Amino acid sequence: MDNRVYKLLRNFAILFGVIWLGWEAYNSLFNTTPGDTEFLAADRFFEDGDYDRARESYKASLEKAPNQVFALRGLARSLMQLGRDEDALAVFNEAISREPDFAATYANRGILYDRMGRYRKAMADYETALRLDPKIADGPSWITRFLRNQPEKPPTITDRLAYLRAQLALPESQRRLSAPEIDAKQRPYQM
After folding, report:
1. pLDDT tens digits, residue range 136-159?
2. What pLDDT score does 89 carry?
3. Residue ranges of the chain with pLDDT lower than 50?
4. C-alpha–C-alpha distance, residues 31 and 37, integer Å
5. What is the CA radius of gyration of the chain?
6. Which residues touch 175 (CB under 8 Å, ≥6 apart)?
7. Which one of 28, 31, 47, 56 is most buried, counting C-beta atoms within 10 A?
8. Is-contact 77 69, C-beta < 8 A?
9. Contact (CB, 8 A) for 137 and 158
10. What is residue 191's predicted lDDT score, i.e. its pLDDT?
């Protein structure tokens, strides 16, 4: 390679590196909104499976930024994982009332309804989520599964919806609507 071309490419790489580092520094030091620190901490706690600390951090984020819908959704997911179903349902409903076109909230509320045994409501929420965002049917991406050390693709809401439809078509005595060993693998959607 020509020495001039090499120097030009090197200088561009250095320039873009400096611009990127400057943007990251600005973004982390000066471009934050109230509640961001608590929200990011809550997301880390949630990913680590520490749902009680995630719940507390999402609540702290909401105290500083009451209109933070992402924190509201996180709070609902944390409550769901903690088994506080009615509390989670109320928070999911609030998140949906604030942002009615966000598919993942319907998917998560569907998962909650499913866990609560309210299968027809779960199906309705799964259908709404898929109508709003068909890509949600794909489930977590390979990189998300890699970061979670999850080699097998977990069941998606599409899988669950098909299963519920098939089971509800059977006579009531033959239905098996809950399979705890499989149901436990279904994680909430985090977006």
Report:
1. 888 777 777 677 677 777 778 898
2. 98
3. none
4. 12
5. 21
6. 167, 168
7. 56
8. no
9. yes
10. 54
